[in-house]
Design brief:
By secondary structure, the protein is α+β, with helices and mostly antiparallel strands. The chain has 3 domains: about 5-95 and about 195-270, no CATH class; about 105-185, Arc Repressor Mutant, subunit A; about 275-349, no CATH class. It is about 45% helix and about 15% strand. The protein has 17 helices and 13 strands. It has helices spanning about 5-15, 30-35, 45-50, 60-70, 90-100, 105-110, 115-130, 135-145, 150-155, 165-170, 195-210, 215-225, 230-240, 265-270, 285, 300-305, 340-349, and strands spanning about 5, 40, 75, 80-85, 135, 175, 185, 245-250, 255-260, 275-280, 315, 320-325, 330. The strands form 4 sheets. It has a 4-stranded antiparallel β-sheet. A 3-stranded mixed β-sheet has the order 1-8-9. It has a 3-stranded antiparallel β-sheet with strand order 2-4-3. β8 (about 245-250) and β9 (about 255-260) form a beta hairpin. α3 (about 45-50) packs across α4 and α11 packs across α13 (about 230-240). The protein is globular, with a radius of gyration of 21 Å.
Length: about 350
């Protein structure tokens, strides 16, 4: 029989899956990043806060140390944004994103560089970063010299890293440890490349384990803003279903996918009634996406998803976004227990 759930059941369950109850395992920042299938790190302090929000005893310094020691991989990943990734998940995520070959689309080439130029950059980066750690300036010089194409310099120096992202998705580049003068560096990853089908067997269950049950389209929006090839996306989910790794469940009439191993815990319908103050760019928001009206009321989306791609710090209660917060206090659109909010506010300040 198909498991039937309410959205309340799902949202409470997700809170515990995302370790908002702060279990002992969350003391390890690598474990937190793995559990969340990556932590956005466009703003390094927000990544540190996202991990700390799930720890009984917050330790932001442990995140910085894990990155410096390469126990966490930092690179451009889902939705083209910088993320911290667990090393076993990293090659799988990059392989799935790379499978879309977005840099081969006409609009991308018109805005940035041609496929031929991208291929030349890939060959140059593969050689330049083999066994080396280079600053952006050093990498730019090496690629321009190797490709004999001075026009690439402007793109490579761009702070947005648009032309570096495809190199990351092809498994050719990750962030290295910061240099002695605290400049960003790049190096070649030590992990092997993966085929998309193998990668899907890692990434899809990891996503569903934190943000499921979910549809294929919701997964793809999280992964690459809906740009995966649809036939390939269907193939990934069908293969995982045939292998017994994922199962369809019913959530208030919607047929959605869950990890098969999670059916028992979903059926138990655990509750989570604590208030959590989560930082900007938290995975609680980004996992389902700001278009998900079950977690974020449509009329309040603009308060969370701000201009310039900024995602506000949010007040989370019972699996939903109940408001936003900052140094000056909270703006709430749903009622939350005052005592629990005060306790959480004391913790973060």
């Amino acid at each position: 029989m198909t498991l039937s759930l309410s959205w309340d059941d799902v949202l409470h369950w997700r809170c515990r899956q995302q370790w908002l109850h702060r279990p002992a395992e969350a003391a390890d920042p690598v474990a937190v990043v793995e559990r969340l299938a990556g932590v956005q790190a466009q703003v390094a302090s927000c990544a540190e806060q996202a991990v700390a929000a799930r720890q009984g005893e917050p330790d932001p310094g442990s995140v910085r140390q894990a990155v410096q020691e390469q126990r966490l991989v930092k690179t451009w990943s889902v939705r083209g944004t910088l993320h911290l990734l667990e090393p076993k998940q990293a090659p799988a995520q990059l392989a799935l994103i790379g499978a879309a070959r977005t840099w081969e689309k006409g609009v991308w080439q018109k805005t940035f560089v041609t496929v031929a130029q991208m291929d030349a950059m890939a060959a140059a980066a593969q050689e330049a970063l083999d066994g080396h750690v280079l600053t952006r300036e050093q990498l730019t010089a090496a690629i321009v010299e190797h490709a004999k194409d001075p026009s690439l310099e402007e793109h490579l120096r761009s702070g947005w890293g648009a032309v570096l992202k495809p190199l990351s998705w092809q498994g050719l580049l990750i962030y290295g440890p910061n240099s002695d003068d605290n400049r960003v560096t790049f190096t070649r990853p030590s992990f092997r490349s993966m085929q998309p089908d193998e990668a899907a067997s890692i990434v899809v269950p990891a996503y569903l384990g934190a943000y499921g049950p979910a549809s294929r389209d919701t997964f793809d929006q999280w992964l690459i803003r809906g740009q995966s090839k649809k036939a390939m996306l269907r193939q990934w989910f069908a293969g995982l279903h045939e292998d017994g790794l994922i199962t369809e469940v019913d959530v208030e009439g919607e047929r959605l996918w869950a990890r098969t191993e999670d059916l028992e815990s979903l059926a138990a319908k655990p509750r989570f009634d604590e208030v959590r103050l989560l930082p900007a760019f938290d995975q609680f928001v980004l996992g389902p996406g700001t278009a998900d009206t079950r977690t974020l009321p449509k009329q309040h989306r603009a308060e969370v998803s701000r201009a310039g791609g900024w995602i506000s710090p949010v007040v989370a209660y019972r699996g939903r976004i109940a408001g936003i917060w900052g140094e000056d206090g909270e703006t709430l659109w749903d009622k939350v227990p005052a005592a629990k909010l005060a306790k959480e506010r004391k913790r973060v300040t």
